Amino acid sequence: MPLILQEKIENGEIGLWKITEEIEDLLSLAKLSVSEKITYSEISAHHRKKEWLATRALLNKLIYQPHLIKYHTDGRPYLENSTINISITHCIGFVAILLHASCLPGIDAEPITRHVGKVASRFISSEEFSACCDKTGISNRRLLMHWCAKEAIFKMSPISNIEFSIDILIFLKDSEKESGSFHGIFNYKSTPIPITLYYKIVDEVLIVWGWTNEISFTH
């Protein structure tokens, strides 16, 4: 079954789709509008076609009335003619969507086997790096949770020039469970905004998400 996670959250919903279908099946599930068919025809990469279609198939599972996914000039998605806010992420073989009725959502997903240690200095502070070390060395899982958390917070903001290691700080205490929560701070326009983040591991994929109503953002 492609929909491997569908969970209600506070004023919203999260879904994770495992892309197992062929393109013909995804086309049927996506139920593309005329304008979407035009956009789809311009996608050349096979894997990108699947991701694009699976995203719309997943959205159809999460909401009853179909809405077109549009994009702001900075690349952030929104639903046309809807007050529901949306965040989208994809990794190899999966797409995930977070919907929220009143807050700006952010979600990121990565395979738990992805190694990010070589680029750690680009996205975490020295204090955060220390928190990712234990007696056995550097925990890739904790590094990856920092990465996904910062990506999720980044997707909540209309600002693109964000320094991950400075502007977004993560306070991760426990990362060994299959699901849980932790906290982060986003220094938005010199104002620290606390954000609660949630995580879950499903089918070897780490998903981190959260939302905030303290960032001003209009379509």
How would you describe the overall organization of this protein?
Helices cover 28% and strands 37% of the residues. It is an alpha+beta fold. The strands form four sheets. A five-stranded antiparallel beta sheet has the order 7-13-12-11-10. The protein is globular and about 55 Å long. The two termini are 34 Å apart.
Indicate the radius of gyration in whole angstroms.
17 Å
Give me the secondary-structure category.
alpha+beta
The mean pLDDT is 92
CATH topology of the largest domain, by name, is: Ribosomal Protein L22, Chain A
Query: What is the CATH-assigned architecture of the largest domain?
Result: Alpha-Beta Complex
Strand content: 35-45%
Distance, first to last CA: 34 Å
> So what's the oligomer here?
single chain
- What CATH first level of the largest domain would be assigned? Alpha Beta
Low-confidence stretches: none
**Number of beta strands:** 13
Largest sheet: 5 strands, antiparallel
Number of alpha- plus pi-helical segments: 7
Count of structural domains? 2
> What sequence of helices (H) and strands (E) makes up the elements?
EEHHHEEEEEHHEEHHEEEE
Indicate the overall shape: globular
Briefly, what is this?
With about 220 residues, the chain is α+β, with helices and mostly antiparallel strands. The chain has helices at about 25-30, 35-40, 45-60, 120-125, 125-130, 140-155, 165, and strands spanning about 5-10, 10-20, 70, 75-80, 85-90, 95-100, 105-110, 135, 135-140, 170, 180-190, 190-200, 205-210.
